[in-house]
Amino acid sequence: MEWTIDLEATAEADVAQVYDVIVIGGGPAGLSAALYTARAGLRTLVLDKSPRASALGMTERIENYPGVPGALSGLELLDRLREQARHFGADVVTAQVLSSDVTVEPNEVIASTGTYRGRAVIVATGAMARKQALPGEEAFVGRGVSYCATCDAAFFRGQEVAVIGDNDEAVEEALHLGRFASAVHVVLPTGRFKADPELVARLESLDPVRVLPGHRVTAIFGNGRVEGIRLRPRTGGQESVLPVRGVFVYLQGNRPAIDFLHGAVSTDPSGCVRVDEQLQTSVPGVFAAGDVLCRRVRQAVLAAADGALAAMAAERYLSGRQALRSQW
């Protein structure tokens, strides 16, 4: 499977290669973990679907991150963390993680760029997943509803599709769909894009694209397969019907984004990952850091601290020691 819309250099998976640590997520927790494991001499891979898809990436102004005087954006801080992790030798790949099997040795992580294998995994995917699906969404998954245009766009060649979302991921996927679909309807529930302006300009220049700002989807409907969506303006007004054959959903919420684990690790009733004092999950060799733990206070510096601790715990696990190293 080929991922064709990456904004950074990427690498296809080499099935013969086994990483020491695979970090899933490129926010402050994941990148801090990566720079610690890479600095410890562990072969480290970071899989990050998009810097702008994280809570920090959406933050316009940060003034209180230790050691960083002055104000900067969340994206600027992530850029610095990413380059620091790369400086120590971490591989950073822009890819969406689709599935995983952490019950086998080595662990397997299936992403849009291929399958990767690692002796330890650190989950740092944040808490931007949704608690509730759109009406009709679950019923049509695999029958017109998709979360990966690079995977499924070819199935909708010459047909009309809808993309629901306003972030970088939604825009990138809509750009890819524009190569296949006869029409791409981009539904913006918030009324405006929150994506890279250059990406938005590229999207809006495409002939098949129609942007629908300020609409919410009230239902996805069909008979066996998706036949359309129902829309209602957020300012009020009558509901309308948009006939489409495919619906690509890129909405976000505040639930831990761990669906790719398929319930392999223990969670609490709210979906937050349970860990021990060294941030190891119920599966040996699988660690978690950052907002997937549902800390009461969410701050980038606390997520980074989680990442550092998870990295040290992963190094301890891989070395077979009983205690963490006190000096890094």
From TrEMBL:
It comes from the Bacteria. SUPFAM superfamilies: FAD/NAD(P)-binding domain. Keywords: Flavoprotein, Oxidoreductase. It holds the Pfam family Pyr_redox_2. The keyword Oxidoreductase applies. Residues 19-307 form the FAD/NAD(P)-binding domain. This is FAD-dependent oxidoreductase. The lineage of its organism: Bacteria, Bacillati, Bacillota, Limnochordia, Limnochordales.
